[in-house]
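Provenance and format

Records in this collection were gathered into a single text stream. Each protein contributes a sequence line and a token line. The two records reproduced below are adjacent in the stream.
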Amino acid sequence: MPRKLIAAIKEQSLPLNDESLDKMIEAVGEARIVMIGEASHGTSEFYTIRAELSKRLIHQKGFNIIAVEGDWPSAQAVNRYVKGYEEEGASARDVLIKSFNRWPRWMWANEEVENFTEWLKEQNTSLDKKVGFYGIDLYSLYESIDEVLNFLSENPKYEVDLEHAKKAFTCFEPYNRMPEHYALSAARFTDECISEVSSLLSSLRSHEERYSDKHEEDLNVIMNALVAKNAEAYYREMMQGAISWNIRDTHMVEAINELLKYHGEDAKIIIWEHNTHIGDASETDMKNEQMINVGQLIREQYGRDNTFAIGFGTYEGTVIAADSWGDPLQVINVPPSKLDTWEGQLHAAGEEDKVLLFTEENRELFNDWIGHRAIGVVYHPAYEAFGNYVPSRVGSRYDAFIFVNRSQALRPLEK
């Protein structure tokens, strides 16, 4: 297999440059959803190249939504900034540092995102259809509860919804704003208590027309209620042995659908998430554990012609990560990949950065099962052979792939 795969890579790959990125945009065709991955949450090139692709998609293909693997309330501060909803005077750096205050902050409070945010704000001053920046993750349980209650409290005309919200969120009061405390105790909750949050979301949705669309207030209240409902389920299942991963990715797809619905039939969305979320799980060994992900569900719901998934990888370099959850960030050396891995094969085919476009004609050349590196916010290079490689059929997992032979660590705004 190695020689055969190396030969296929040499034959089919393109040098990573402006011309190959343009070819990738051309290959997107009429797809309404483009998912752009990353092999880590701490690699500079993944962020900068993803931003360059997004710029092209906005200007050449009319994409107007960016949805990221981040919390809704934090990303909303960025959305308000790039759309000019906030008062003048703030900078992208100020917004990112203030808004992304949950660990791992470096994922979004970094120089790479800062540069793109300033670019997006500038572009929006001349675009007929302003591009939004939204978070689709569900970790912001308490922040989203606060957002809903504050909005309804500040608008007395929504008193019925406010009383409903207060009742629904009473379940969370005893847990000292600590989701893990809630998760440990959730097994004792009654079905009635759990269903209150779902009932609240249904009620808010049925009253959507009452909310002002000024500065997307109507979208904000619905999305925060959606986060609260799904975060409750996520933390409850996390401590009961169920597959909380599926709840999280299903939530992100639900959030994507809400964004597309809100922005209308001609809306087009760019999704920024880790490869493990946007690369079709059914083409990996994740399916053996009954795990699904955003990439798989989006393909199933919208069809292959309406979606396009771009994966990333690196052979060696440095990355921002931590020793354990909540620990201080570090610049960690990424060791060279072994020859029998996807990244090792890409390196063996030539040390230059490269692009692969997968089509119906060449997918099978890249569909033998092979380990594909995935680095998270917690990373131990010494043990990566035992857990950082996801067996994959790469040619079918993605529609295109970008390889950076030697990559550099992300540049956090605060150490």
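Adjacent record:
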Amino acid sequence: MPIYEYTCHDCQRRVSLLWRSFADAASREPICPRCGGRDLSRAVSRVAVLRSEESRLDNLADDSGLSGLDENDPKSLARFMRKMANETGEDLGPEFEEVMGRLEAGEDPESIEQSMPDLAGEGGGMGVGGDDFGVM
């Protein structure tokens, strides 16, 4: 049972249609489920690629992932840490967003750490800057 995506030229929306078979999709006229329009054109569907956690982390470690990293530039650290968070796919919470916002504004990681002592946890240090760069 194929699902095809179409662009409706009547209501300007992208819609997905589920067909009973490939033959059905080839022989029948698509109708927009939103507006009933018949002026639809096939669109290229997005593709999702499943990757292992190891593959995602390897991608972070390759030269292209680290090429723009400057540990002395807070904005560079924030870009890398956001990329790392996106690769892991985990929600790191409001504290992470606050730290990233402050880094992106150019604030020094040490001053962020001093103003947010609960963020460091038992191990101390945020894992930002210096030699202890890592994932919280």
